[in-house]
Structure formats: C-alpha cells, structure tokens
Design goal:
Length: 241
Amino acid sequence: MELLIRITLFASIFCFFAITGLCVAYAFGYMRGGNGSMIKRMFASSVVVLLVAVGGFLTYAFKYLTFSMDPYLGFTSEIREIQQVLKMEQVYPDHVDGVLGANTFRAIKDYQQKYELEATGAIDEKTLQSLFGWKERFNSPINNLPQELVRPYAVAPAFEHLKIQVMWLQRAFEMENPDGILRPEIVEAAKNFQSSRGLFNDGAIGFDTLLCAIEKDLNSVKLLKLNSTSKTSRSSASTGG
C-alpha cells in the first residue's frame, strides 16, 4: 500500500509540473501557434491525470492511516463492550469508557468466580464466549433488563480479531511470549511503557498509551527502513571498494 501511495504522489507531482509548464507556454504565446491544439490536449490530459492521481493518493493515504489506527479504534470499542456486559452483570462498578486497567481485570475475575470459571482474571476465548452468552444463564441479571438495551451485547467480539490487537500491544509493551490473551500482567507492562514515554503510569490502557504504541510501531517501521537502507549503502560501498 505504501508503494501505491508513493506512485500516486510522484504522479501528482509530475502532473503538477506538466500543467505549470503548459500554463507558462500559454502565457508566452506558444499555445497560439500551430501546436496550440496539441498543447491544449496535453493540458487537458494532464489535468485529468492530476485529478486521478490526487484522488488515488488521498484514498490510499486515508486507508493507510486507518490501517495504522485500527489497533486503537478496534481495541477500545471491544473493551467498552466487555465492560458494558460486566456492568450489566453487576461486577463492574466503574464507568464504561473502553480504557483497560486493573479494575476491568478485577471485574473479570469476579465474573469468573461468580459463574465458577477458572478465576485467572484473563480475558480468554472461553471467558469471552461465556460473558456474552448471558441468554443461556437464567440467573444472569442481564435477562431482567429491557431487550432493546441488551440486544447489542448478545454477540461476543471476534476473539481472533481481539487476539491480533492484544498481540500488537504485547509487542509494543515488550512483553515476553506474546500470545494474544489479555492477562492482568499487561497492566504492569503498560506502567513500564507509560514511564518510558513520560505518561502517567497508572497502567490504564487508554487513548494516550495506545497513541504512543502506534507511534512506536510506525517509528519502528521507519527505523527498519533506515537500517536496511544504510546496510545496502555500506554493502555497495564495500563492494565498490
């Protein structure tokens, strides 16, 4: 995708200079001679290509930005859904805000104990399916709530998608053996990451922390490109020497 962004950007730059050159030619009277019709066709073609190139550049740039922000946008939304169901289960007293912290893991552990699951405090696939399978639990307080309120929370978020997001976070926080399972240990890792970025180190994974994780991810890609470029340059220099 990045290659397409670069191609459309270069095409936009080329067309911009082509149109500028044709405008200069028109201003100095070159378009009024025998080649005027040809230059006008070139001008019109350049304008069309420029518009297409700029449109393509903006489209792919937006897609690239959306892809980069996806871990933040998706993760926050899914944590908010989990918190909402925990709140309706009356085990999560805090505000539903999509910020993952110690209180959310504590509520998960209370939920697991309440329904006789293994009380690890981790948001694994079994816990996630159980949490959103409240219709099958006759003693769940959610069944006593209005249907229009609880209907959006009858289907669990896709665990595989959540797993990818969690693995991304675990790598950003430099946790050992990232497995995509949200465990309480990630709070301590988040605290260390926040301290390294000058953030308030409360272990709560919210907007600022996720934004720094995305920035680190993008900077790592840039650093990798710089390193590979410098290695190639050094290799070429040594070969030439």
